[in-house]
């Protein structure tokens, strides 16, 4: 684990898209990094620091909503198939898109967590 950053270096590779329950494998780490970044930028008085803080707050709210809906949809998707051998709905595609979004958020949070204490870290780059 990186010292003082709350990032587990052993989880640097995101899980594969085809895993059975992707939201449960990576989500706790993503939520932890979002919370860590929120706390880090809470007392930052700069405009970019405050924008990062509010952005991570909104991201947490939306992650909670989307992953809850995605999980409910994943459990019900089989009910809308043509038959047991022919999946015939877009719910699985939606869940794959949600999972890809979670992986992207994981990557973003990891970059911010690991680079925010660097002299070369530019907050403005992340708030465009």
UniProtKB/TrEMBL annotation:
GO terms for molecular function: lipase activity. Residues 9-25 have a biased composition (Polar residues). InterPro entries: HSL_N. Residues 29-127 form the Hormone-sensitive lipase N-terminal domain. It holds the Pfam family HSL_N. Residues 1-25 are annotated as: Disordered. It comes from the Eukaryota. One of its GO terms (biological process) is cholesterol metabolic process. This is Hormone-sensitive lipase N-terminal domain-containing protein. It comes from Scylla olivacea (Orange mud crab).
């Amino acid at each position: 684990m990186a010292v003082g950053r709350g990032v587990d270096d052993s989880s640097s590779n995101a899980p594969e898209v085809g895993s059975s329950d992707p939201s449960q494998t990576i989500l706790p780490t993503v939520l932890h990094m979002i919370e860590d970044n929120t706390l880090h930028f809470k007392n930052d008085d700069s405009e970019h620091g405050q924008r990062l803080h509010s952005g991570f707050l909104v991201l947490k709210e939306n992650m909670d909503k989307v992953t809850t809906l995605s999980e409910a949809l994943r459990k019900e998707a089989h009910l809308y198939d043509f038959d047991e051998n022919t999946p015939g709905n877009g719910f699985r595609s939606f869940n794959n898109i949600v999972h890809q979004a979670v992986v992207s958020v994981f990557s973003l949070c990891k970059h911010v967590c690991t680079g925010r204490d660097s002299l070369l870290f530019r907050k403005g780059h992340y708030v465009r």
